[in-house]
Amino acid sequence: MFNNYQEFWNLLPMIIIGAGIIISLIIEMYSKKSEVILPWFSILLFLAAGLHALFYIGDISIVLQNMLATGGNVNIFHAIFTLGAAVVTLLSIDYLKKYGIYFREYYIILQTSVLGMMLMAAAKDILVIFLGLELMSISFYILAGMNRKRLNANEASLKYFLLGAFATGFIVYGIALIYGAAHTTSIDFITSDFNLLSGNLLFVAGVLLFLIGFSFKIAAFPFHMWVPDVYEGAPTSVAALFSTGGKAAAFSAIIATLFALFNNGGQGNFFTPFLAVISVLSMFYGSIVAIAQDNIKRMLAYSSISHAGYLIIGLAAGNYDAVAGVIFYLAAYTFMNLGAFGMVALIEGKDETNLSINSYSGLGSKKPLLAALLALLMFSLAGIPPFAGFFGKYYIFIAAIKANLTWLAILGVISSAISVYFYIRIVVLMYFKTSDTEIGFEESNNYMLAIILSVLIVVLMGVFPGSFIDLVTKFI
Amino acid sequence: MENSLLLTYLILTPFIGSFLILFFKKGQEHLIRYTALAISTIAFIISVIIYFQFDSANAGFQFIDKFHWIKGLNIHYHVGIDGMSLLLVLLTTFLTPLTLVSSWSSIESKVKEFTFFFLMLEVGMLGVFISLDLFLFYVFWEAMLIPMYFIIGIWGGKERIYAAVKFFIYTMFGSLLMLVALIWLAVYAIGPLGYFTTNLIELYAVSPQIPIDIQTWMFIAFAFSFAIKVPVFPLHTWLPDAHVQAPTAGSVILAGVLLKMGTYGLLRFNLPLFPEVSVAAAPYISILAIIGIIYGALVSMVQTDIKKLVAYSSVSHLGFVVLGIFAMTQESIQGAIIQMVNHGLSTGALFLLVGIIYERTHTREISDYGGIAKLVPVFAFALMFASLSSVGLPGLNGFIGEFLILLGSFKSPVLGSWWFTVFAASGVIFAAVYLLWMYQRVVYGEVTNPKLNGLKDMNNREIFVLFPIFIFIVWIGIYPSTFLKVSDKSTAKVVKQMYNPEKINPVQMGLIQSTK
């Protein structure tokens, strides 16, 4: 299976998670304390895999008969997934307790979904992408309905499953057409023949279908219908994973597959018009509809749609800066959103109370630290310097302008200006309004650790983005 | 010019200080106030040291400190000042401690948070004036919004939320367009330079080579963002809300320093980066400036609220500054710079005085006052002094700035018509009308409002706050060279970049020869 020890070593992050899943299954079967052991065991796995990926980022190789790549950006994505998942696990511990929905498979399915994401990012073959995608998606369908007794959660799960299966259909069909045109599923072969293939209508249709399928996964307009309902119905900790890891994984697959498109002189690419239209629609739809939301989870869902729009600006630009910018943005977005969802999970009361944004009134004087952290996350999501969200946007706009898409960048900033309104509304409520009603929730160290870690990363990535950028640009 | 760490120390002082403030506990309000005063005074002392070490014969940037911040995108931490920014840095560090002291009685809740935001605001303002890297500039420019937003939103008046959100979104919208223009400029500069950079000094050299129609768009984006901040008519609607709703300390800094960031931006970026477009746009922007002068004055005249009156007077005064900048003669630009400082001092003083009386009576309606000269003579004198300075009485600071601007615009080769001066000059008369009329209604006459009986005069702390401001008002009025000589060479350089003297008749630079 492995040609040598080095291949094994390079693949270790995925092997750690894969072996971890099996060990977790055994723990789940034989231990009575699995509720205590499993989460910390998963965190350990995620940290080990993530740190391995970061430390051995230079070990670039293609392994397992041209199926998987390791090193470079693949490892950065692996680090984003695993460290993000570690934060999600940390959030889940008390969240599951609060709702009394600890079912033993939760953490194991979390691990399988992360393994799926890692496969997608590492794929060198379209079929591996599909394998990873399905592993991730099916895990997600189950996770969405984890709160079995609630109608909402069942609805979310079913809706996600049906629309997700529909999207998968597009992707499979796209893959079939691509295979039909290119006679191969190897991404490298497709890339080298790209100029030849781009004249082939079958191939173009295949790639378009593939992109449409992934537009579902990254929550881009007009393929976003599932997003608000699923985010609202799914447990908050799970929604945090959907909006960060899930989105980042889908983007990693798009970047991996369509790298050819990024390789033709930095002047945009074949699919630029399609991507640009999706991007503009997503940004504006997300920003405008979010203003009307009263439920913070739905607001974050629409915000996630509009962030997908900014990320697609990068895809439309299609140059090297865009790849680096999208990866930076995804990393920044992952931790901003994890922090924000973490805060929602913490403040949310049992039986889904405290989800209206008005519950945040007066938080500034009641819980100064929490309010300050949330305010910071909101400023970062709105793209205000010196936080990570701003820098991500800056990078993506550079890419867009270099690709002669200045108009897209201008629309991007207009949409950002609109989105400022609903982000700072939370700040307004927390600091400028007072409320007499107590919001009852229990702070716990797990939540605080998760949130503070996310905020720390957001601030560090905003103030010192240099080292992360060096890491990203080195391997493009 | 050799490198210097002074500017870095200057900006680090309030930055570290603001975090120091966070370590204090509740109930230590006094300690917090004195610590903040000490911190901002240290910053002022550093800026005074910079003033004395400043070489006014040098037109370039001095006290440069530069190192890589984000290597991947060639972004530097790059600071430095020239004659134009030095005065504004001094104004900022001068007003901050005084404003902090003025807030001792008016800000009673959440003193710690207020002080934290206030020092952060100082960091942002100083950063804007000393940045020589467009990215760094943008970060400070935007980051500064956050503390101001909180200051208006938490400690402001009744309509504070509306005002804070309006302020935030208005400014954010403008600056985001500037962000696009900034990147566009840097991307265009890759052609001649061969690499991506946001270094302002390098961009100065290459930006005139950009095709003129693209320069025009960039000019518009930059100018739009700065015009919102100034604010230039018709983008001024956020200003009355923000000024009136902000707490006194917020209004003073807003009027005293924040608005200057807009005019400073026009002078630092628009003119030297896009000289041809600036010359072409000068008449149009000057028309807007003059509309602002007259409109601001007329609207001030009919205000019944003293604070609103002062707020609208800013629109009028800043119109002069914009006119001075776009008249593009050395006198007018010198006048614009000195007028920025003047406006900071006199309008700052007016806001402080309005705050002082409001704390006692809790009303700002002019009709609630009348005859307070007998009750509070010191206050009445101070108000008279500040009003006259704002009106532009010869011998006080306002006169110098307005005179230079009017003189410069009269012989401006780019405006090409003395009508600009005629209309602008009418603003001076209107200023006298609305300020002196307000003064008469507030201070003179009989006391009609029984609630005013027992009104206490200014205490020592309040006198202590205003006294230094008055010293500078007189100083600039009587001997402006102390300040004019600093910016002389830098403005001469800007003017020289703007137009080819051989094409247009060279302007006689008679009035302000530098004190060599």
The most extensive interface, with participating residues per chain, is: A-B, 34 and 34 residues
Strand and helix order of chain A: HHHEEHHHHHHHHHHHHHHHHHH
Q: What helical percentage do the residues of chain B reach?
A: over 70%
The largest pleated sheet of chain B is described as:
2 strands, antiparallel
Number of strands of chain A: 2
In percent, how much strand structure appears in the residues of chain B? Answer: under 5%
Strand content of chain A is under 5%
Strand order across the biggest sheet of chain B? 1-2
* Helix and strand sequence of chain B: HHEEHHHHHHHHHHHHHHHHHHH
Question: Quaternary state, please?
Answer: heterodimer
| Cα-based radius of gyration of chain B, to the nearest Å | 22 Å
Question: Could you explain the architecture of this structure?
Answer:
The complex is a heterodimer of chains A (476) and B (516). Chain A is an all-alpha fold. Chain A has a domain of 212 residues. Chain A contains 21 helices and 2 strands. In chain A, strands 1-2 form a two-stranded antiparallel sheet. In chain A, helix 11 crosses helix 14. The longest helix of chain A is centred in the middle third of the chain and has 32 residues. The relative contact order of chain A is 0.10. Chain B is mainly alpha-helical and 516 residues long. Chain B has 2 domains: 273 residues, no CATH class; 209 residues, no CATH class. In chain B, 72% of the residues lie in helices and 3% in strands. Chain B is built from 21 helices and 2 strands. In chain B, helix 12 runs parallel beside helix 14, helix 15 packs antiparallel against helix 17 and helix 18 runs parallel beside helix 20. Chain B is globular, with a radius of gyration of 22 Å. The two termini of chain B are 19 Å apart. Chains A and B meet through helix 18, helix 19 and helix 21 of A and strand 1, helix 5, helix 6 and helix 7 of B.
